[in-house]
TrEMBL record:
Name the record gives this protein: Similar to Calcium-independent phospholipase A2-gamma acc. no. Q8K1N1
Lineage: Eukaryota, Fungi, Dikarya, Ascomycota, Pezizomycotina
Catalytic residue positions: 11 (nucleophile), 152 (proton acceptor)
Domain PNPLA: 1-165
Keyword terms of this UniProt record: Hydrolase, Lipid degradation, Lipid metabolism
Gene Ontology molecular function, alphabetical: calcium-independent phospholipase A2 activity
One Pfam short name: Patatin
Gene Ontology biological process: arachidonate metabolic process; glycerolipid metabolic process; lipid catabolic process
InterPro entries for the chain: Acyl_Trfase/lysoPLipase, PNPLA_dom
Top-level taxonomic group: Eukaryota
Source organism of the structure: Pyronema omphalodes (strain CBS 100304) (Pyronema confluens)
Keyword Hydrolase: yes
Motif GXSXG mapped to chain: 9-13
GO CC annotations, alphabetized: membrane
Length: 225
């Protein structure tokens, strides 16, 4: 049974958007693979000073296994673009950012849209949206010689509700938006700037942490909407 017309997400939210919107898994069917995926991916840390704390190959393996089991073609190399997406099936997109243009999120869509999307496989879109810099290394997507490197869009687009509304307005021009359901953005947090110590004046790590919290704040988006 289909409940939504379009689903969007960033990072783990993007992974869930792919499972529900692109692979058309039911919520019940998605829970177990998601838990298994998490256990497999985060079971082993990489050596210190490597790019990312965990192995991206483990994430790719887990995502490909899920695609092979639940995808329409049972093929781990299935395209992100859904050949059925022009019908009434639920559409989905996930967010990432190109490392050379982090001000503007890139949407990897399952459907044709007036705005262009990168051409890629489902697993590549999943890798791009989950490539949090402290967890996984970047991923390069594109033709040889024209690849673009992506990371997740948590900084600035941790809660892509506004993008979801824009996409819905592009796709369903004749219809009003009846309902928006936002899940998994966490509890609101107070962001404050502590009085700097002498050490913090030289190495302002706390200020960096404050800026990170501001950039990933999801509650502000909810207030604006």
């Amino acid at each position: 049974m289909q409940y939504f017309d379009i689903i969007g997400g960033t990072s783990t939210g993007g992974l869930i958007a792919i499972m529900l919107g692109r692979l058309r898994m039911s919520t019940a069917n998605a829970i177990a693979p998601y838990n298994l995926m998490s256990g497999h991916v985060f079971s082993e840390r990489k050596f210190f000073m490597q790019d990312g704390s965990f192995k991206a190959t483990k994430l790719e393996e887990a995502v490909k296994k899920t695609i092979k089991q639940y995808g329409d073609l049972k093929d781990e190399q299935e395209d992100m673009l859904d050949k059925q997406a022009n019908t009434d099936v639920c559409k989905a997109f996930v967010c990432a950012v190109a490392v050379n243009n982090i001000n503007h999120p890139t949407l990897f869509r399952t459907y044709e849209a007036p705005r262009t999307s990168p051409t890629c496989k489902i697993w590549q879109a999943a890798r791009a949206t989950t490539a949090a810099s402290t967890f996984f290394k970047q991923i390069s997507i594109g033709e040889p010689g024209a690849e673009v490197r992506y990371i997740d869009a948590a900084l600035g687009c941790n809660k892509p509700t506004r993008l979801l509304v824009e996409e819905a307005q592009l796709l369903f021009r004749a219809h009003a938006i009846d309902c928006i359901l936002s899940i998994g953005t966490g509890q609101p947090q107070f962001v404050s700037i502590p009085t700097p110590t002498l050490f913090q004046r030289i190495f302002p790590t706390r200020i960096i942490d404050v800026l990170k919290k501001l950039a990933t704040d999801a509650n502000r988006v909810a207030d604006e909407m």
